[in-house]
Amino acid sequence: MKKATRYLISIVILLAMLVSFIGCTTEEEPTQSKGSIPSGEELLQPMERLRVATTTSLYDTGLWGYLEPIFEERYGTELDVLYAGTGIALEYGRRGDVDVITVHSKSREEQFIAEGYGVERIPFAYNYFLIVGPESDPAGIKEMTPEDAFKKLADTGTGSFISRGDDSGTHGKEKAIWKGAGYDYEAIRQAEEWYIEAGRGMGPTLLMASEKQAYTLCDMGTFLAYKGKIDLVPIVDKGSILLNVYSAIACNPEKNPKVKYEMANNLVNFLTSPEIQKLIGNYGTKQYGVPLFIPCAGAEPQS
Amino acid sequence: MTELWQGLIKAIQLIVTFDPEVMEIAGRSLAIAATSCSIASLMCLPLGSLIHFSRFAGKRLLINLLQTLYSVPTVAIGLFVFVLFSRAGPIGGLGLVFTPIAIVIGQALLVTPIILGLTISALSGVDKAVTETAISLGASRFQAIILTIKEVRYAILTAVIMGFGRAISEVGISLMVGGNIKGFTRTITTAISLETSKGDIELSIALGIILILLAMIINFALNRLQQR
User: Which superfamily does A48-127+244-295 belong to?
Assistant: First the structure.
């Protein structure tokens, strides 16, 4: 028993040394990783934290990772960014589990506000959707309008299409294009193997499309951010239906008294402030050559 | 094969340089699993003894139920805990969803059937003669119970080790209830899930290797304790 106790004690001491070592290093560099190993206090008492559920395309482009530290330092609050699809983000908002949502599905956002769960819809950036696909373009839909392209995909069945299939904003846009092309979405879902429902975020769906050399609908930002990792090219990029507007909505404290409404408003104001709008407009230019988003400070952009 | 090899090299790199983000999520995985396992063990040892040493109607049924709960899917528990603690849910007032505490609660629920069931199994393995001899030699009922528990302390420790293993390696609860928030509720398992879906296979493999190493070290330590 004595030998085993000694072993155990030495391992505990090693772990304790490790913990304190990391504690020291993370304190010296507060900007690098703000979370250290949770102390007992952290585990027991949730600190001042603002939760934002974001659409996956805003996250996969790295925009939130870029803005998060700026916001946290300015307002002295921890920002928790939850990777969700528009569908689940709206659900979190209804439940009051998050304080702000940043999504891109105008009709559902307006419904969210009409139902009283959100206060106001504030657009803060936009870009465009694209239909991307393999360079070989097996279905021959290059340069068509989005509706015609979808029509050809459905009629000929050549070339696979990967749908987000997760009730996200992008998925909503895809459904809108199918409707515009004159198809019943449920009929498309029952279609043969060419229509694939991924059930994943934008970045992961792109990777799947690249793997399968299939078409998919993607926002410009995520496509540019993932360009080095995927083997796909833009196939259809013109069409008024492809406008993609990101909005921030603070959750209504009347429905959920526990939401941090004041700080939520701070975040919305932050996103539409001139300084941050400029940063958003420049985001990605250095890395990808073109900006990933176009700022639109609270006003609805015309396509 | 090159991917695995690259992953191994990356793992060594991350460990040797004490990469702060990896250390943070590793520490978090450990802390959360250890906490949930401790809570569950502290509850299950007295509860298990109580169940084993008592006689009541439906005892057999209860034990069977516990054994079926060994393989409850983690996403199911995650969903259950989420709905329970969501602000819109019955225990929503605490605002525990998307915090590490919620993960601890979920994991405690996950490992309780395992530790409880295996404790009861262990106790049933003790020959009744032991308790009877102790009593005939003058031990009180309480002392006889303690003696029985001591007889199987290593089997009970095995139960705890199994519980810990299940807790540290689960993803479903951590993802659904924790939200994989960077710097707050991201664990090794949720990080692997995220990095894989982002296409960073090398990092995922590295994290996987680190997780396995961590589990092995803990098991090794606990095994040495077990072997006297």
Answer: Periplasmic binding protein-like II (3.40.190.10)
pTM: 0.80
CB contact under 8 A, A25 and B20: yes
Tell me the per-residue pLDDT of A195-220, one tens digit each, with 9 for 90 and over: 999 988 898 999 999 999 999 999 99
**Contact residues, A window 145-164, toward B, CB-based 8 Å cutoff:** none
Residue A238 · residue A145 · CB < 8 Å: yes
* CB atoms B224 and A7 under 8 Å: yes
The pLDDT of residue B182 is: 87
The least confident of B2-6, B29-33, B178-182 is B2-6
CB A123 within 8 A of CB A277: no
Q: What is the mean pLDDT of chain B?
A: 89
CB B139 within 8 A of CB B147: yes
Domain(s) labelled CATH 3.40.190.10 in chain A stretch across 48-127+244-295, 128-242
Nearest-by-Cβ selection for A97 from B28, B97, B197:
B97
A78: three-class secondary structure by DSSP: strand
Q: How many domains are there within chain B?
A: 1
Q: What are the CA-CA distances from residue A72 to residues A69, A82, B209 (Å)?
A: 5, 15, 33
Alpha-carbon distance of A209 to A259, in angstroms, equals: 38
Class of domain A128-242: alpha beta
The model's pLDDT over A97-118, given as tens digits with 9 standing for 90+, comes to 999 999 999 999 999 999 999 9
CA distances from A78 to A73, A252, A275, B171 (A): 9, 20, 21, 24
